[in-house]
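Quick one: structure tokens for this chain, please?
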Amino acid sequence: MPGKRKYSPAVGSEIDSNESNVPRRLLSCCCISVLIAIAFISFLIYEVNDYFESTEIDRLDIDKRIVSISEHCKDYESHILYNCTINVPCHFNCSYITNNLYIEKSQCSYNDYYEFWSIMETIFIWCFAFCLTFSVGNLILGGLCYLITERGSSSN
């Protein structure tokens, strides 16, 4: 009587349930992470856009503000001299004062961080574009290297 032999199951006939769920779980985690990242980025874009729009509206309100000047001044665009005094002050819009008279008034100053956030946004967009270009370039280069090595190993 021959001895008892242990037969191993044929390849692919018996799959461990834990091993088959690993790629599915990994794919689910990746998809959920991507969706959360997209939602977060969308929220950030919405908030930044809302900040810029509200700041621009506030700046337009400041530009329309009427301010009195009690000193002699000159319009550098049209070369008009204004003889404003304390007794007879001149009244101008803030936009006219800053653009033509080159006078800095505290009532016309913007108390926001618009320029700072504009610069930060520009830097972020450039970094994102650089990283995206670099990542896509690496994916293409990696794919080409894979194809070259696969063709090289399959010809042997």
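Strands lie at 66-69, 72-74, 81-83, 90-93.
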